[in-house]
Write a structure and sequence with these properties.
Blueprint lengths: L1 H14 L1 H37 L4 E7 L2 E3 L1 E2 L2 H6 L6 E11 L6 E7 L4 H10 L5 H4 L4 E4 L1 H9 L5 E5 L5 E9 L5 H4 L2 E5 H8 L5 E2 L1 E5 L6 H11 L3 E5 H39 L3 H12 L4 H32 L6 H6 L16 H27 L3 H5 L1
Parallel strand pairs: 5-9, 6-8
Antiparallel strand pairs: 1-2, 1-11, 1-12, 3-10, 4-5, 4-11, 6-9, 7-8
Helix pairs in contact: 2-10, 2-12, 2-14, 10-14, 12-14
Length: about 400
């Protein structure tokens, strides 16, 4: 009996395929749209949080007039004397705007005699021969920088213009791995002294100072000590950065979810109206089933399963298409919402990350309104008087 029921259900789906095709296509597109956004958001968030682990516990900037200015390197020794601080180092970095004033390279100065920094760089590229690298002015560049230079006929070097008007010829030593494009697409790694010259930073100054504090319980106390040493500083903690990342993703996710909800409600209203239109064919079909002994409960079950089959197939196909779109096609257009499109073109690839809890919530968020929008029309069809329908 059960096999006969499902056989009849599949025959009904085949018979009514032309009636369901539009609903199936729109449902698949809606699911694919939301799933693409979820996959993309989860992947970028995953990679961003991994890169955050490499960040220092504290980043100290000097503030003048509400804006960040170069900080004296002499503070490094003072900060090193604080008990509980395991690592202190100055950093030199900044934006180097290109002649069009729209695009820029992110210049990052590296002290290649600092083992901890060199270990971090080795994670981004191949092992560096420091002696060879420092033999002349050389740089390690991200893939976005590489493409820009290639498009402007710089195959082996680039002439940087310093704030004093002097040209600085810097040769390309290596390119960062492609899987770092999300965070290092526009980066140019150079020796710290060369970075100072290109950016116009004095020898006794740095962009900021970084600290590592192994014991989390000491961080609040050390933060107060740092402010006592130099009150006009801004201290950025790793926890603050993590919260900013969370707020950014939640903000963008909220906007998208609001737009998707409006679209979904509109679609469900159309779906409700579509299934509310009972034609003569539907009435006769129900009348025949009732005439051969089917109860109203069986008819409702049949119609609900017919609709549910369409919804589940659309959901699964939408998920598959979204997975291919994000992790194989690299989500064109969508990725610009998160990683931006104002600077160098980014050809990053996304790490496959699937949040099954979020997928389950999405399934319920889609299926329940879908079933609710057709339940009343299905019940209305099911209670149609058999004698009236057959006339």
């Amino acid at each position: 009996m059960q096999n006969s029921f499902f056989n009849f259900l599949f025959l009904l789906l085949y018979k009514h395929h032309s009636k369901h095709i539009a609903v199936f296509i729109v449902s698949t597109l809606l699911v694919g749209l939301l799933a693409s956004f979820m996959f993309l958001s989860s992947s970028i968030k995953h990679d961003a949080l991994i890169s955050l682990k490499e960040q220092p516990d504290f980043t100290i900037q000097k503030i003048r007039g509400g804006r960040s200015v170069d900080i004296p390197i002499s503070l490094v020794d003072k900060f090193s004397d604080i008990k509980g601080v395991s690592y202190v180092a100055p950093r030199v970095f900044g934006r180097y705007y290109l002649p069009d004033r729209k695009h820029y390279f992110t210049i990052v100065g590296v002290d290649f005699f600092d083992e901890q920094l060199v270990t971090w760089i080795n994670k981004l590229t191949k092992n560096i021969d420091i002696k060879t690298f420092l033999s002349k002015n050389q740089m390690i560049i991200g893939n976005g920088v590489k493409n820009y230079l290639k498009n402007h006929y710089y195959d082996s070097y680039f002439n940087f213009l310093t704030p004093t008007g002097k040209e600085k010829k810097v040769y390309i030593f290596d390119t960062l791995q492609k899987d770092t494009n999300l965070i290092a697409n526009d980066i140019v790694l150079v020796d710290i002294n060369l970075a100072r010259e290109i950016l116009g930073i004095q020898e006794d100054k740095a962009t900021d100072i970084i600290l590592n504090i192994p014991n989390p319980s000491e961080r609040t106390n050390i933060k107060q000590k740092l402010l006592l040493i130099n009150y006009d500083t801004r201290i950025i903690t790793k926890d603050m950065l993590e919260k900013e990342y969370e707020n950014l993703f939640n903000y963008k996710g909220g906007i998208f979810l609001l737009l998707f909800t409006i679209t979904l409600i509109t679609f469900m209203l159309i779906l409700f109206q579509r299934y509310s239109m009972i034609n003569n064919s539907d009435k006769k079909e129900i009348a025949i089933l009732r005439a051969i002994g089917w109860s109203i409960k069986d008819v409702i079950k049949l119609k609900i399963l017919e609709t549910l089959s369409i919804a589940i197939l659309a959901f699964l196909l939408g998920i598959v298409l979204a997975y291919l779109f994000v992790f194989y096609a690299n989500a064109p257009l969508f990725r610009d919402i998160f990683i931006g499109f104002g600077n160098l073109q980014n050809s990053t690839t996304f790490t496959p990350v699937i949040d099954f809890g979020m997928l389950s919530s999405m399934f319920l968020f889609f299926i329940i309104p879908f079933i609710a929008s057709v339940l009343i029309p299905v019940w209305k069809i099911s209670i149609t008087d058999a004698n009236e329908a057959l006339k």
